[in-house]
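Give me the fold.
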Amino acid sequence: MPGSFGGTYAGNVVACAAANATIDVMVEENMVENASAMGWRLKNGLRKLQDSGKYPIKSVRGLGLMIRMEFEGTF
């Protein structure tokens, strides 16, 4: 159709409504703040394990619950 917009990345009303509803739930349930707090707890616990010297943990880093651990040596 002349003047129409379409394609793989073209949004539709249902997809946009679902995205908006998802964002609303994430905001209402404080999911970002919760991920940040739980990530801090996880990193703190992993760093305690690292400091104990019992485990070959070289580094612990990340944002929220996206945590990266680097191990010393080879397995």
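The longest helix spans residues 31-52.
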